[in-house]
Amino acid sequence: MVAGATIGEWGRKENGELYSFTYKAGEAKPAALAAPAAARCSVYISDVSFHGAGAGAWFQWETSQACGGSFGSQKLQTQMWRSSWSGPRGYNDWHGTGLTSNSFIDYGWSTDCDDGGGTYTYYPVMQGYASGIGRGPKTRSDNELRKRCGTRSPNP
What we know:
Number of helices: 0
Distance between the termini: 27 Å
Helix content: under 10%
Structural class: mainly beta
Largest sheet: 7 strands, antiparallel
Strand content: over 45%
């Protein structure tokens, strides 16, 4: 993980209250929210990168989630989003992991570029889930890329 990367944390406090916040890697968590939790998960999504050219071009990113406490099982999902005049839109379908009782999951993802389509700004988002807590907030990459990949991935 890169220093300064955005980390999302969400969970359930001892009293049952749900919480979520973000902070930068290498910095202290917000003091008011760093209290002990019954269950919590931290999520990270890497910067998105672009590889190849023409019909062989694709986006690539990584997601991870670490959970602790009484969470049961966890999974995560991710999707590439693109800009639109009416707000962000999904460029491909949501993709996710299966449920696991492991405390840490880490996956790499990619989606193809529909070469020659319209020019938009693209960035991936992720959302975690843990039993006993529920779904976390959607978290996006710290960067975005302006590319000519159109409105929909050719391989959703």
